[in-house]
Amino acid sequence: MAVGYDKHELGMALLLALEDFQRRLDAELARNGFPGIRRRHRMVFRHIATHGPSRSVDLAGAVGIRSQSMMKIVHELEELGWVKRRVDPADSRAKLIAFSPQGEQLLAQLDVSTQVVWEQYAKQLGVEALDTLLESLRLMVSPPHCKGNQ
Fold first, then answer.
1. Could you report the per-residue pLDDT of 126-136, keeping only the tens digit for each?
2. Are strands 91-99 and 83-88 parallel, antiparallel or unpaired?
3. What are the chain's domains?
4. Measured in whole angstroms, how far is the alpha carbon of residue 136 from the centre of its chain?
């Protein structure tokens, strides 16, 4: 018997789905030589992948944490070999956080591993149901002014 959710449990269902996705993705990345990725790392990866090399203060603001906490995460990512600091050409006193060559490999593997997880879900739900789910989630998180323009 399938487990159902009441309307007031929508948040819990979404959270459980996210946790399941991340667990599957982390396991797939670990199988391919990239163990130890954490949620705090993903937030930094997403920002750098979208906005390019960034100052740690900008990363902290984007993620919503203190600069000191971001510096700890950046140091952790440097030790793992996934990011490097380089001089900001706009201000030689500042450093930009960018992907290292190993971090670029991680991004490439992330695409492959995400596809593997997609295929797991497609096998479980069916491709059409998964496509419908993804479109529904896109609509849910679209800004209200964009929903009528699609």
1. 999 999 999 99
2. antiparallel
3. 7-144 (1.10.10.10)
4. 19
Comparing CA positions, the residue from 110, 129, 133, 2 lying closest to residue 48 is 110
The whole-number pLDDT of residue 148 equals 52
pLDDT tens for 55-96 read 999 999 998 999 999 999 999 999 999 999 999 999 989 999
Residue with tokens 């479109």: 135
Beta strands in the chain (DSSP E): 83-88, 91-99
Is the torsion defined by CA of 131, 133, 136, 138 positive or negative?
A: negative
Write the single-letter amino acid at 146.
C
> At residue 93, what is the residue type?
R
Task: Tell me how far apart the alpha carbons of residues 44 and 5 are, in angstroms, rounded to a whole number.
Answer: 32
Q: How many residues does the chain have?
A: 150
What is the per-residue pLDDT across 108-119, written as a single tens digit (0 to 9) for each? Answer: 999 999 999 999
Token pair for 71: 């510096």
